[in-house]
Task: inverse folding
């Protein structure tokens, strides 16, 4: 565990070098919030009305929360880095190091995520207050618990991204798989809560990783209750275990196939 | 003068042809990139299906208008990235001193440094025509649509040249340039009528998405000479501005004596 904490610490310090670049890069978060603020403004002809159980303020806070978490993780980079490691043979050097490759990527990614979350989350909360006012039925403990579930949900997301990256052992380019995955997650759960999807697929979505990754934590953020918190935590624990096992299995099967020529 | 232009077109055509042939070496990866990009773009239609299930008209935009908007946005993105990828990496070439290789060649520096092929962008291009087909294709529409995509694509490339050329004066601006080119793409996929007057001014100046997507959309739906003149005038200004800014910046360029092999 100590070695992973050390990797976390090193990567966190490394991230500090890119504060300016990260802040400029995060302008797109403000832009997407601005676009959806305008779009929902037209859809909610009466700001007090509810659409699929959500008020205008709840919808904007929902998107603000999911988009902030999404902006803190560069899934595309995780997939690309692992693909590069596999393609250029760097993975062979990683295999004989005294750490587990999956845990190494997890520690590295989480250092970067923590750094970004510490900047973006307070900024997003301030932005939300300026644009639409208070979080509906604000409850400090509820918000903190929702943020913790958001972090656990992000861990599920990272494990799925690592699994997709590891598919490079078996196919030339895993990036297209990530494009589809990221867009499904973006549309279902990030931009729209599950209630906005066709009724026929809603029960399936409520048992899918989307519930654990973004919908559950964001719903808690805008409408907190303890029964729902327990459901979200149970699904997160299950999906964390399932995807950790899957990721390790894909890695073990992949390294058996590896064939590195010289170097 | 005419011979020079002819040579320029010839070298652009040949460079692109060989770059495509190089990418096609791995046919499976190339086709996967194209197909998955089409699927990736198609997932965004789900956003609009959800939006239009709430209201059937978003400030003058029907679902058919959105299909054409996405067709033009995706097509111009396809044209620009499929053939001129280098324009989006120009700031790195400037700060890393990689323009040296183009400066010693007896051909146009700007054209050579912006050429480059992105396989997945051919998926964007194909997707544009799929949407045109769905929204109702006629020979007239097909021709006008193709001309608008070519012009819009060129304006997109020129805006990227302007953003990236800031590196001549400001140093490392890759994050800023990426954000600004991202703004063009992002704004271009939402109805312009949801934004206020200030944002509309930006669309005709600093983020010239009006000349890439919105004015071409108006021309495609309801042709009128005023829009055509606005498009031709605005596009010409951006193209001329891109050349002036790049060459003014090039005078400040200094080599980094970087030794690399270009294969």
Result:
């Amino acid at each position: 565990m100590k070695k992973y904490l050390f990797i976390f610490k090193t990567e966190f310090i490394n991230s500090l070098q890119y504060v300016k670049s990260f802040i400029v890069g995060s302008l797109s978060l403000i832009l997407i919030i601005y676009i959806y603020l305008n779009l929902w403004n037209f859809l909610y002809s009466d700001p007090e009305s509810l659409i699929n159980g959500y008020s205008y303020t709840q919808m904007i806070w929902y998107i603000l929360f999911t988009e902030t978490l999404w902006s803190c993780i560069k899934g595309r980079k995780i997939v690309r880095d692992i693909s590069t490691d596999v393609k250029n043979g760097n993975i062979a050097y990683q295999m004989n190091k005294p750490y587990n490759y999956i845990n190494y990527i997890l520690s590295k990614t989480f250092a970067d995520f923590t750094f970004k979350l510490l900047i973006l989350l307070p900024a997003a909360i301030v932005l939300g207050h300026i644009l639409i006012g208070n979080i509906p039925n604000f409850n400090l403990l509820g918000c903190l618990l929702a943020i913790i579930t958001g972090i656990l949900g992000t861990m599920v997301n990272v494990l799925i991204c690592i699994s997709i990256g590891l598919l490079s052992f078996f196919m030339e380019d895993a990036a297209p798989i990530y494009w589809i995955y990221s867009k499904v997650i973006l549309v279902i759960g990030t931009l729209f809560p599950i209630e906005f999807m066709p009724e026929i697929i809603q029960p399936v979505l409520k048992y899918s990783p989307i519930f654990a990754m973004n919908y559950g934590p964001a719903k808690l953020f805008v409408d907190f209750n303890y029964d729902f918190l327990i459901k979200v935590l149970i699904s997160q624990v299950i999906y964390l275990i399932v995807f950790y096992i899957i990721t390790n299995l894909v890695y073990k099967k992949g390294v058996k196939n590896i064939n590195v020529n010289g170097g | 003068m005419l011979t020079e232009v002819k040579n320029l077109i010839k070298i652009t055509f040949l460079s692109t042809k060989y770059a495509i042939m190089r990418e096609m070496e791995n046919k499976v990866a190339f086709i996967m990139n194209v197909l998955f990009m089409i699927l990736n773009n198609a997932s965004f239609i789900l956003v609009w299906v959800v939006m239009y299930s709430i209201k059937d008209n978003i400030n003058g935009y029907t679902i058919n208008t959105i299909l054409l908007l996405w067709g033009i946005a995706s097509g111009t993105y396809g044209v620009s990235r499929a053939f001129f990828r280098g324009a989006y990496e120009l700031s790195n070439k400037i700060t890393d001193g990689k323009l040296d290789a183009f400066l010693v060649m007896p051909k146009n520096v700007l054209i050579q440094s912006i050429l480059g092929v992105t396989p997945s962008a051919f998926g964007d291009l194909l997707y544009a025509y799929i949407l045109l087909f769905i929204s109702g294709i006629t020979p007239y529409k097909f021709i006008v649509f193709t001309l608008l995509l070519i012009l819009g694509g060129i304006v997109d490339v020129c805006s990227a040249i302007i953003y990236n050329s800031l590196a001549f004066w400001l140093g490392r601006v890759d994050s800023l340039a990426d954000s600004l080119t991202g703004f063009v793409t992002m704004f271009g996929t939402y109805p312009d009528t949801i934004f206020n007057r200030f944002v509309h001014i930006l669309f005709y100046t600093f983020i010239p998405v009006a000349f890439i997507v919105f004015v071409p959309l108006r021309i495609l739906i309801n042709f009128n000479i005023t829009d055509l003149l606005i498009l031709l005038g605005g596009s010409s200004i951006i193209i001329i501005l891109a050349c002036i800014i790049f060459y003014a910046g090039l005078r400040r360029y200094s080599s980094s004596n970087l030794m690399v092999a270009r294969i």
In short: Chain B is about 75% helix and 0% strand. Chain B has a mean pLDDT of 91. Chain B has one domain: 2-250. The two ends of chain B are 31 Å apart (CA to CA).
